[in-house]
Amino acid sequence: MKKLLILIPIVVAMIFFSCDKEDVKIKRLNRGKGIWQIETIEYFTYDSLGAHVVKDTTIAHAGELVVFTTKTLDGLYGYRLMVADMNDASGNFTATFPGEIYDDGTRVDIRNSSPAVSFLWTIDKNENRKQVWSTYSLKPDGSVSEKITMTLKKGD
Q: Which of 76, 81, 85, 122 has the smallest set of CB atoms within 10 Å of its CB?
């Protein structure tokens, strides 16, 4: 009987720790409705040395990302399907782009979607109801040419 009492917690612990870690991270994006409002997309263009911002542009209410689970092969590898509903600079709907999204808690990879969001993003802020992501473009010499920051808020 003692052996059984010792084995039960071990089996429970094995089940708990065998969960796919990437799957746990991506669930933050698609939990519940999985709708994230894109509050802002900020574009920062840097000078020839990559040291100073020479131009910045902010687009408010840029659209929304809808993340949902799937039973496709990519779903087995931590990717989820996503739809990006994008707005123009005036906040008017322009187009819908399907794509794929992957989140490992440090980076978010968006593929085959809107040109405004299809990047490898670094997660700057990772909260249940608010996310801030940044991506960078580099010049051939390795200096920064552009930084894009996207602020997301969980939809209601």
A: 76
pTM as predicted: 0.79
Distance CA 21, CA 30 (A): 15
Task: List, in sequence order, every beta strand (DSSP E) within the chain.
Answer: 35-46, 53-68, 80-87, 93-103, 107-111, 120-126, 130-138, 144-154
Of 119, 113, 123, 111, the C-alpha closest to 151 is: 123
In 3-state terms, what secondary structure has residue 67? Answer: strand
**Model pLDDT for residues 40-93, shown as the tens digit of each residue:** 999 999 998 888 999 999 999 999 999 987 666 555 567 788 999 999 888 889
Q: Rounded CA gap, 60 and 153, in Å? A: 12
The CA distance from 132 to 95, in Å, is 23
Phi/psi for 69 (5° steps) reads -80, 160
CA 135 to chain centre: 11
- Domains detected in the chain: 22-154 (2.40.128)
Residue 66, Cβ neighbours under 10 Å: how many?
19
